[in-house]
Amino acid sequence: MTVLSELERILSDAKEEWRGQEAAPMETLETITADGPAETGSRGGGAKNGGDVRPAPVGGAVAGAAGGSGARPLNQIALADNLGFMKACADDGMGGAFNLIYIDPPFFSKRNYDAEVKLAAPAHGTAPTWRQTNYSDAWPGDLGQYLRMLAPRLYGFKELLADTGCLWVHLDWHVVHYAKVLMDEIFGAGNFVNEIIWNYKSGGASKRRFARKHDTLLFYSKTAEYHFNPQKEKSYNRELKPYRFKGVKEYKDALGWYTLVNMKDVWELDMVGRTSKERTGYATQKPESLLLRILESCSEEGDLCGDFFGGSGTMAAAAERLGRRWLSCDQGRLAALSTQKRMAGLGANFRLTADRRLGGDLPGRFEAELNISAAPAGKTRISVRLAKYALPEGAPPLPPEAPQSRALDEILSGASLGLVEYWSVDVDYDGESHKPTAWKAKKDGRIGDEIELAAERVGAVRVRAVDIFGNSSFRVYT
């Protein structure tokens, strides 16, 4: 039986799967928002001993786990399987709420995509590298298995999109043609808008074929009344000389004379280079320039934009820069960590949520030292120093025979803070929601070990830490 002969069954099963899908039970792990009342937090913060520290004012009304009905949803990073999370969004009143959804799902490449984590232990000289999977695109089954994954999610996207909303699906030669058949059936062939070819220079070449140097983005609308802002691009005149046509505005740059025309469906944009400041280290990261162009084309300031295969958080970062509201979901802990660091670095307001079934923050075994004293203007000065890190209880261990294990043991017995990627402090923990007053993230391989600030009120102090493996843990000091 061929995949084409199975398509009708795949579509029928997918519709029923989406209808019967159980909503993921979400919980909030951390909330960073600038809308809070002054008495519940402080804007103070220090930046000692390297790394990056930012104040994270406390407060702001937080709606339901998936965004909340009857309230403007706060930007959100969700650690969950996207199908269950989409159903949670729909059940929470967000059906028809999204103006734009972009997804960059696995490409059916039959590969695993790894991240390199260097365990820099002094005694080892050249530290061994621990490779862990960012995500798997191996697909032990056939193409039908992949399409059975994708199809129910397409039904979910359709329900979440506003009537004027658009869906962008980012794929390549492996499976894009099959995906288009599914989308024609689910969204209607008449709602196909564009096939965008993203051409780039990076990647390898072969003597057996033309170099594969492009991805394909399928652009569909939910209805015929979709929102679209035409973009302009340069079109150089023949021989780069002025035409001097009546009514045609011409321009000149260092290359020559050109006019501005509506952008075509082949885009030449560079990938994220190895030395780019934008690079997060997450496998298959897409450039912000690509997402900025998509968002500018199909959304306006204040619109809600979603990415349910969030990866490194490029869509969220581009949306934040353009003043859009955003939601980024991924089931990978390293993806959630990458996105959290990236969005915190942009000064974004957001919640980090997780499916309770995946396990949230673990009880911490790290050590923190607190120093509290009086400060001017009736405030309280608090200093929190992260003194030592240990893997939390329940964290998956490295295989004892692996060379990385020796380096890890040495780090844990010495420079253990090298394992920490991000940590934050809530100086007035309410016993339910972690609302950090300040945070620090690793920068250029270093992370500061101390946070100092002056707060209006200091109560129970909750310290939350996330390590290079994506393990998150906490301790509460009273």
Structural topology:
Blueprint: H1 3-20, E1 26-32, E2 52-55, E3 76-79, H2 82-94, E4 98-103, E5 111-118, E6 129-137, H3 143-160, E7 161-171, H4 176-187, E8 192-199, E9 214-221, E10 232-236, E11 251-252, E12 257-262, E13 266-268, H5 288-298, E14 304-307, H6 314-321, E15 325-330, H7 333-345, E16 350-355, E17 362-363, E18 367-374, E19 380-388, H8 403-413, E20 420-426, E21 438-441, E22 450-455, E23 461-467, E24 472-477
Parallel strand pairs: 3-15, 3-16, 4-7, 4-14, 8-13, 14-15, 17-24
Antiparallel strand pairs: 1-16, 2-21, 5-6, 7-9, 8-9, 10-12, 11-12, 18-19, 19-22, 20-21, 20-23, 23-24
Q: What does this molecule look like?
A:
There is one protein chain. This protein has helices at 3-20, 82-94, 143-160, 176-187, 288-298, 314-321, 333-345, 403-413, and strands spanning 26-32, 52-55, 76-79, 98-103, 111-118, 129-137, 161-171, 192-199, 214-221, 232-236, 251-252, 257-262, 266-268, 304-307, 325-330, 350-355, 362-363, 367-374, 380-388, 420-426, 438-441, 450-455, 461-467, 472-477. It is an alpha/beta fold. The protein folds into 3 domains: 3-25 and 65-227 and 265-358, Rossmann fold; 230-262, no CATH class; 362-477, Sandwich (Immunoglobulin-like). A hairpin with a 5-residue loop joins strand 18 (367-374) and strand 19.
Give me a quick take on this structure.
With 478 residues, the protein is α/β, with parallel strands linked by helices. 22% of the residues lie in helices and 31% in strands. The chain is globular, with a radius of gyration of 24 Å.
